[in-house]
Amino acid sequence: MLIFSKINNYKKFIEIDSIEECDKVMADCIALIRIKSEIIYRNSNYFGYNEDDCKEYLESCFKLGEELKCNEVDYAVFVDFDADLLHTILLMFAQCGASFFIMDKTNRYLHEAQAVANQYLLDTKILALVESYMDIRATRNWCDLDVLNGAIVIDGIVEKDLLFLK
Fold it and tell me: Is the pLDDT of residue 164 over 90?
């Protein structure tokens, strides 16, 4: 299990919006692309999100991921909402070279994301966002049972204090 904690790991995740902001990302940091729910749902209708606006926004995020990959910058993606789009977002960012995919430990799609990562043998690691490393003891409750393959266990955790969001 990967553990990003202020106790034993000083790697910080620094939110960026453009490739030019990479100068803020020092050697002890990982660039962070945050998929913002307020943009996904900005022009939402009763059934969810405006597909055209959502597509345009996500494509700009995927392009940033591609630029980071081309410049050999390690990066993570943080998704702060529950949506059926997570499957698509995960697969696209895995293709764009994301090292980590971060979701809150309470996100109802957390296990599904891990199952997708396992099924498609993605290099992208799924991390649960937690308050403290002490939440590791609760990871046994985060296991979901996959009938074919047994338990689905999350790749790791990251403490909230290590995410520096704008």
Answer: yes
